[in-house]
From TrEMBL:
GO terms for molecular function: sterol 3-beta-glucosyltransferase activity. It comes from the Eukaryota. It comes from Lachnellula hyalina. Signal peptide: none annotated. Gene3D superfamilies: Glycogen Phosphorylase B. This is Sterol 3-beta-glucosyltransferase. Residues 235-267 are annotated as: Disordered. SUPFAM superfamilies: UDP-Glycosyltransferase/glycogen phosphorylase (SSF53756). Residues 26-133 form the Erythromycin biosynthesis protein CIII-like C-terminal domain. The lineage of its organism: Eukaryota, Fungi, Dikarya, Ascomycota, Pezizomycotina. The gene is UGT80B1_3. The keyword Iron-sulfur does not apply. Keywords: Transferase. The keyword Transferase applies. It holds the Pfam family EryCIII-like_C.
Amino acid sequence: MIFGAVKRAGVRALVSKGWGGLGGHEVPDGVFLLGNVPHDWLFQYVSCVVHHGGAGTAAIGIAMGKPTVVVPFFGDQAFWGAMIHKAGAGPEPVPYKMLTEELLANSITTALGPDIQSAVKSMAAKIADENGSANAASSFQQAVNMDSMRCFICPERLAVWRIRKTDIRLSTLAASILVDEQLIHWPQLKLVRHRDWYVDEGPSGPISGAIATASSVATNTISLVVEYSRNFSKSIKKPAPKDDDTSSSDSPPIKPSPSWDIPHTRNPVQAAVDFPPERIEAVAYKIATKAFPVPRGSKKKSDNLGLTKTTMSLHSKATKKAVEHGRTYNAAHETEHFAVSMAATGLRVPVALFYNLANGFHNAPLYFFHDDTVRKRDKITGFGSGVRVAGKEFTLGMFDGVTGILTLPYRGAKKEGVTGFCTGVGKGAGALIFKTSAGYTLKGLEKQFLKRYNRDLKARLITVRLRQGIAEFEQASKEKKEDVTRRWKEISAVLM
């Protein structure tokens, strides 16, 4: 079809072979098959481009001033094809399922016409006058409040820590210096979240919400069964350990060392420079789980960055125990883990169902009735926020639902007359039903539970920040450390 369209349009063509290896041995005259070629180089030497309508390919074609024929397959490709046609830079896009030799030839011929040529060259000139990178950076800077992200002590640095129960934000360097001087302690710090992005819009309606729940449960169950089968098979096939084998083949145990246990160090961060990675990870986990006791009094000597040998050897003991019990123990352990995971999945079913139904009812007026009065739901982070969202949804949903019976018909009549009024009545009645049916308390309970017991991700983030702070502390000059200490004393005298 492609070769026929090229011949019918009376043009020569450079055709990408693609994944399927288009062409074979019968390539007509005037057609040259290409492999992987950079578009920004190739498009300089052609008169027109024909492609799927991906955002990147479309942008390069227009920037090069080339008329563009779009044959969309899926996703946003149809959108970009429509935008190109609307701007006059190409003919109307033709979905690949409707594509014929004649339609493709006509699209190419149309694209090479003077009107489209003129329009696309004008667009290319405008793009050439822009500085896209600078504009993007400027837009980003304007959207972010940089002052709120600065460290109180070192304003040229990004704040990554916040002292609990205060608004004092510190960079990794400042925090490390202050901890080393024992002016603050690691348990007093928590990671800063400069901005929360709301991405959990939920399903478009209650039916799709129920389907999403069923699909999620089925997927999780299948994944757990497959994982259990694989791990159980490995556990019973694993050879029994020898008497002198005290290590695990999967992950060697951490061997405690007396040098790790520094119960009365004066400069904990300085001492941590020589710590092995496992020690830092263990400290991060203790901070994440709030298992680090806050020393009373900043002058009291304490192991601010310390763990005892007993704590560090827990993994070693657990690994040794698993090895000593052999196949039976491993198989039982995998079965226990599978049973617990399945139970957790079962407990989450009602949470997911009611949550997705609530989101579905919340979003239904927008998707089904085009009701733009639907409010954006607040983010749920725990039990308290879940209760607040549930109450707010019911109260505001009732208010919007009742007022919508009056406002939607009025707006419809103003826009489309009698037809719009009748449509507005239907929208208002339907929206009233959906807007008064939502609840998020169960989701809040789940979030609260996960926030309390699932600390692995938080510990990994803290590990990165601890390592960064230790590295910056090691590189900092004596003058810089003294300056940070001096500034802290000035700020703490005012704010704390």
